[in-house]
Amino acid sequence: MKNPFMEPEFTLSNEIGIDLNFLESRINLEAAYYNMSTTNQTLPADIAPSSGFTSMYINSGEMFNEGIELELQVVPVFRQDVRVDLSINYAYWHNEVKSLTEAFDELSLGNYVYAIVGLTYPTLVTSDYERDPDGRVIVNEKTGLPTKSTDLFRQGQTTPKHILGFQPHIRYKGFTFGASIEYRGGFVMRSGPANDMSFTGISDITSWTGREKFVWPNSVVNVGSEENPEYVENTNIQTNDGNVNFWTQTYRSTIDNFVINAAFWKLREVTFFYDVPRSALAFTNNLVKGISVGFVGRNLMMLLPESNMYGDPESNDGTGNDVGYAPGGAIPPTRSYGFNLTFTF
Amino acid sequence: MKKITIYTFLALFVLSIVGCEEYLDVNQNPNDLTISTPELVFTGAAKLYGERQFMGSGFSLLGSWMGYFGHCGGWSGWHEVHSYNMTSSQYTGFWTPYTNELKSIKYVKEKSMEEGNYGLVGAAKIMEVGTCERIVDTYGDVPYFNAVRGKEGTTNPVYDDAQDIYEDLVLQLDSAIMYLNDAIDGHIDIDAAADPMFGGNKENWIRYANILKMRILIKQAEMTGRDSYISSHWSFDALGFPTEVTMNPGYMVGSSGKMNPLYESYYKNYQGNETSYHTQYGMSVFLQHLYQEGPGL
User: Fold this and answer.
1) Measured between CB atoms, which of A48, A49, A253 is closest to B87?
2) Most A CBs within 10 Å: which of B149, B155, B156, B160, as the mutation test of the A interface?
3) Are B233 and B227 contacting, i.e. CB atoms less than 8 angstroms apart?
4) Do A51 and B149 count as a contact with CB atoms less than 8 A apart?
5) Cis ω on the peptide bond leading into residue A122 (within 30° of 0)?
6) Where do the domains of chain B lie, and which CATH numbers do they carry?
7) I want to staple A15 with a disulfide (CB 3.0 to 4.6 A). Which of A34, A190, B130, B276 is the partner?
């Protein structure tokens, strides 16, 4: 629904930075701190469809962003034939929703992503099982199955809190070697492939119990009454099903099962070049002024936390505000190798 | 000094002319119209209303629970239907009328009332009742009295008591019949081309309202303490009941976008290929007998 009472968005930002050079620029350090306060952001908010509309544009309240950026460049070796450049950069980013509208302090942006006052934006909010005060899943004494909680569970932010990059660059005579390594961490995501693979029964986890009934790991049963619950560890009550109905329905209906730690280390790029020395090209009588041979490898390695059995956290749906969802059916990341041959005339 | 004043006035004059030029106004989107005619909107709403009887969540979920059709072998799924284990995020299609035909019907009612087109007001009210009855039958308490008022600022309407809604539906049908009778007496016609259900026949709309009212009352027959309510409302317009209600806005087999959606979903698409639903759903013997031999009343 269009809203005729929209107001323009305003951003107030402050930044302070420092730039230090030592030893004839052999060591460079750049540091910056910034903060930004944005008011009246325009957002499409989900509203009750019984109002006749499913979403409505609103001016949200205030959003506060702050971050630190550090970059250190060192040249430890610098001689006639050899030069080593090392560059490390780190970024920290934090934000907080200060206020939304007068009517509500939570706002759904679709795909289980919310803006919640007092928390980072975007925050992933999903369904979860009923749990006891220690966080253990409560299962039914007859069916052995957990109950989906009516409350929604706040999983965490879907944008990285820490980004760390490392770029070494080494040159020895005509040879150059470069690489780019990156870490991103401190955020969660919801995996569409995990959901799809559980539906079709091809994800690893669906085979852990041999598709037979099983005792829910680390679960408890309530032996007390509903008012005065008393939880004891469940060691023998099996789920009433461990096959198609369980994995396609019970397991899939609780989105908590598909929320994973989105952290990763990536070896994004490795380059290796060789420039043929000009003296070796003298026989061409200055026709060829330079030849360069090189190999480039991209996306060579990805290290993921154990909980992420499903793939690249960067295959996000992220075109809108609802960052934090890797859709099923996306093309998996590809590793590529390239070969370069350059002639200069 | 005088020159400066003259130039200033000239400059202001030029500015004022340019500033008023309409081609500079980019705030009007010619592809996003904000007004229509009640007749045009009515046709769309009536088409949806008719199709809703056989399409969407209502048909695929309630149809299988009622035993009208079964899910065929060779396909996996419908576990939630078979185990009656539904969550609030499944089969949400029951809510789409709120953002669709109910919104259109509201527009038709308001505009036709302004224009004094009472026949269209009555017909729109009847469709509103039919739509809301289905939502109440499925869910019980639902938003009704404050529903479809997002533009007025009600973005989160309260849920009304199902009994209150049911009683209001009967009142709305009585009022719809009054509007249609007014239109008959005042010779106000419903545009035949705008009405895919009855071709503008106001008498048939009244007959249809009669049977809707009877259905709503019969549904309460088994409830305790409703006898006096039912008997006090058990009165119908003298025109009687319809023999048949059909809706055809001009369906054409083999024409993309103009097919009967029941045929297109459950049998063959416009290219003549069998749809996947055709092998997923099978008509039950019960429904087959119902079609062949009638309801057997």
Assistant:
1) A253
2) B155
3) no
4) yes
5) yes
6) 33-71+95-249 (1.25.40.390), 251-297 (no CATH)
7) A34
Give the chain B residue whose CA is nearest to the CA of A253: B87
Give me the domain span that covers residue A315.
105-127+151-190+259-344
Locate all alpha helices (DSSP H) within A131-265, ordered by sequence.
Answer: 192-200, 244-245
The answer to whether the CB atoms of B150 and A244 lie below 8 A apart is: no
Locate all alpha helices (DSSP H) within chain B, ordered by sequence.
2-20, 38-52, 56-57, 63-65, 79-82, 96-99, 101-115, 118-139, 162-185, 202-218, 227-233, 261-266, 276-280, 285-293
| Å between B158 CA and nearest CA of chain A | 9
Looking at the domain assignment, is residue A212 inside a domain? no
Q: What pLDDT digit, counting tens, does each position of B67-124 carry? A: 888 888 888 778 778 877 777 777 888 888 898 899 999 999 999 999 999 999 999 9
For position A290, what pLDDT does the model report? Answer: 85
Residue A51 at interface with chain B, using a CB cutoff of 8 Å? yes
Q: How, if at all, do strands A325-326 and A162-172 pair?
A: unpaired
Q: Is the model more confident about B167 or about A225?
A: B167
Residue range A314-345, pLDDT digits in tens: 876 555 555 677 777 777 788 999 999 998 88
Is A49 close to B151, i.e. CB distance below 8 A?
no
Q: Determine contact: A245 vs chain B, CB below 8 A.
A: yes
Is the residue at A45 inside a domain?
no
Q: What integer is the mean pLDDT of A181-210?
A: 87
Mean pLDDT of chain A: 85
Q: B118 exposed, middle or buried (CB, 10 Å; 0-12, 13-18, 19+)?
A: buried
Task: With respect to residue A182, please indicate whether it lies within any of the assigned structural domains.
Answer: yes
Report yes or no: B93 and B102 within 8 Å, Cβ to Cβ: no
Strands A137-139 and A162-172: unpaired
Tens of pLDDT along B116-173? 999 999 999 999 999 999 899 988 999 999 999 988 888 889 999 999 999 999 999 9
* Residues on chain A touching B79 (C-beta within 8 angstroms): 244-245, 248-249
**CB-based contact B148 A51, cutoff 8 Å:** yes
Number of domains in chain A: 1
How many angstroms separate the Cα of A234 from the Cα of each of A142, A241, B9? 12, 17, 89
Q: Residue B104 in 3-state DSSP?
A: helix
Interface test with B, best of A1, A5, A50 (most B CBs within 10 A): A50
User: Which is more confidently placed, A14 or A48?
Assistant: A14
A8 inside domain: no
In chain B, residues with a C-beta closer than 8 Å to the C-beta of A56 are 150, 155
Question: Scanning the structure block, which residue is given the tokens 């919801």?
Answer: A190
At which residue do the structure tokens 């070494």 appear? A168
Task: Kindly report the average pLDDT of chain B as a whole number.
Answer: 86
Predicted confidence at residue B295, as pLDDT, reads 64
CB distance from A56 to chain B under 8 Å? yes
Element (H, E) at A128: strand A123-129
